[in-house]
């Protein structure tokens, strides 16, 4: 029998829990439009990943998006051992959105129907039946440097808002002198 004094002392470990964790449908990534900033920067990239043509067919990968106090982690449901981590210092922009069809003045000779990704909390989207979306633009420093827009469909509006709130809190706490780490980090 082993004496209590002979049991090795293991170092204490701390489990790091995410601030927010949401199931998403990952639509993929596309280069960000460097000519625009803010909401305008996601319009074109998202149009490549979301069915703006009215086909109502979208392809994506089931995933989990987790926000930690130092960044955002993307884990694929079918491969939970593989993850992509985006340090918060690489964040350029994020938004909760919804696809909206905008009908122009019908009194004109040629009525126009246009589309736009609008903020989830705007009045324009209140009648939309399209799912809530989450967009993330990060600076990529490895392999092919540049800005990339990651596109997600969230399960509901609350999930999209929770992601935005958590990312905003983490981003607000960045050390002003912090350098952008290697991004993304694959593990």
Question: What does it look like?
Answer:
- This protein is mainly β.
- The chain has one domain: Pleckstrin-homology domain (PH domain)/Phosphotyrosine-binding domain (PTB) (PH-domain like, Roll).
- The chain is built from 2 helices and 9 strands.
- A 9-stranded antiparallel sheet has the order 6-5-7-8-1-2-3-4-9.
- Strand 7 and strand 8 form a beta hairpin.
- The chain is elongated.
Keywords:
single chain, 187 residues, mainly beta, PH-domain like, 9-stranded antiparallel beta sheet, 2 helices, 14% helix, elongated
Strand order of the largest sheet: 6-5-7-8-1-2-3-4-9
Q: What amount of the residues lies in strands?
A: 35-45%
Oligomer: single chain
User: How would you describe the shape?
Assistant: elongated
The CATH architecture is Roll
Number of domains: 1
CATH superfamily: Pleckstrin-homology domain (PH domain)/Phosphotyrosine-binding domain (PTB)
**Helical content class:** 10-25%
Let me know the largest β-sheet. 9 strands, antiparallel
Based on CA atoms alone, the radius of gyration comes out at 20 Å
How many strands in all? 9
How confident overall, as mean pLDDT? 84
Overall CATH class: Mainly Beta
In terms of per-residue confidence, which ranges show pLDDT below 50 for 5 or more consecutive residues? Answer: none
- Cα(first) to Cα(last) distance is 41 Å
- The SSE string, one letter per element, is EHEEEEEEEHE
Tell me the number of helical segments per DSSP (H or I, 4 or more residues long).
2
């Amino acid at each position: 029998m082993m004496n209590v004094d002979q049991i090795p002392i293991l170092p204490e470990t701390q489990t790091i829990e995410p601030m927010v964790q949401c199931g998403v449908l990952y639509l993929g990534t596309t280069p960000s439009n460097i000519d625009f900033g803010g909401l305008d920067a996601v319009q074109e990239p998202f149009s490549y990943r979301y069915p703006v043509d009215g086909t109502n067919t979208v392809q994506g990968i089931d995933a989990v998006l987790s926000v930690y106090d130092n960044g955002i982690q993307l884990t694929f449901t079918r491969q939970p051992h593989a993850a992509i981590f985006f340090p918060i210092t690489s964040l350029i922009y994020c938004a909760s959105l919804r696809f909206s069809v905008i009908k122009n003045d019908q009194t004109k000779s040629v009525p126009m129907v246009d589309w736009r990704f609008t903020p989830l909390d705007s009045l324009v989207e209140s009648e939309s039946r399209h799912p809530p979306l989450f967009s993330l633009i990060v600076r990529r420093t490895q392999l092919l440097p540049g800005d990339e827009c990651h596109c997600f469909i969230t399960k509901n509006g609350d999930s999209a808002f929770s992601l935005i709130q958590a990312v905003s809190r983490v981003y607000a706490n960045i050390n002003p002198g912090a350098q952008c780490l290697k991004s993304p980090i694959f593990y």
